[in-house]
Write a structure and sequence with these properties.
The protein is α/β, with parallel strands linked by helices. It has a single domain, classed as Rossmann fold, CATH 3.40.50.150. Strands 1, 2, 3, 4, 5, 6, 7 and 8 form an eight-stranded mixed sheet that branches. Strand 1, helix 3 and strand 2 form a beta-alpha-beta unit. The N terminus is likely disordered.
Length: about 250
């Protein structure tokens, strides 16, 4: 991974509770396009939310993350094995995996080292798939009064790598080396109240960095308090987060 402040390891338990789950249709599609179902590698697994869904389709899932704290918070599943390993250099045997996945993390990797490692550990013809989400839509009044002002306040604090995700994991940005497999258009759909929505936005790395600036922190606190008071009585909101997905067939060369 490229060096950056590891805000994802800060309060890993809070991160795990606030993050949305990926759509079932994604895992159905991965299974349908895998040439085998013996072993999958979920790279940069975080709290394992993708790994435990993959575990229903594959005999065993190896779930790795650079952060030892994150993997200790990993969601339990009998056929998921967690370990702290960098994406670009693992202890896995060559030609082991039927599937390699990266959820919400590909924009942090050192591609010159990562892609050869994927090719090394994957079986010939294995499937690679990475996905992520960034922006979302919900009710217009919540977008106008809370989401867009909050995004504007934290905008200066995003790491530059996030733009790779925002731009949809373009080949030019990630040096994608495999033959593309076209995924279906998919989105995360959640029903959250405003407290859950705020909790999710507070997991953003930019939010955590912005809170270190006293002036910006006071503005964020006021914005959040006003949103709680105004929108909490209204009940659940419909949150839609389109997924950026890149997938390919791993050649053996």
């Amino acid at each position: 991974m490229t060096p950056h402040t590891n805000t994802f390891a800060q309060r890993s338990d809070q991160y795990a509770l606030a993050r949305p789950r990926y759509p079932q249709a994604l895992f159905d599609w991965l299974s349908q396009h895998s040439s085998g179902h013996a072993l999958a590698w979920d790279c940069a697994t975080g709290n394992g939310q993708a790994a435990v869904d993959l575990a229903r389709y594959y005999d065993q899932v190896m779930a790795t993350d650079l952060s030892a704290e994150q993997v200790t918070q990993g969601l339990p599943a009998p056929n998921v094995v967690y370990s702290a390993q960098p994406a670009e250099r693992t202890a896995f045997a060559a030609h082991s995996f039927d599937l390699v996945t990266v959820a919400q993390a590909l924009h942090w990797f050192d591609y010159a080292a990562f892609w050869p490692e994927v090719r090394r550990v994957a079986k010939p013809g294995a499937l690679f798939c990475a996905w992520g989400y960034a922006w979302f839509d919900c009710e217009p009044d919540v977008m106008a009064a809370l989401v867009m002002p909050l995004r504007e306040l934290v905008a200066p604090y995003w790491a530059s790598n996030n733009r790779i995700l925002w731009d949809g994991y373009r080949d030019a940005d990630i040096a994608f080396p495999f033959e593309h497999v076209t995924p279906p258009p998919l989105a995360i759909d959640e029903r959250w109240d405003v407290a859950q929505l705020i909790g999710y936005m507070q997991t953003w790395s930019s939010y955590k960095k912005a809170m270190l600036d006293i002036n910006v922190a006071s503005q964020l606190d006021a914005l959040v308090a006003a949103a709680h008071a105004r929108f909490q009585p209204d009940g659940p909101l419909h949150i839609s987060m389109p997924l950026a997905i890149v997938a390919g067939r791993i050649d053996p060369h």
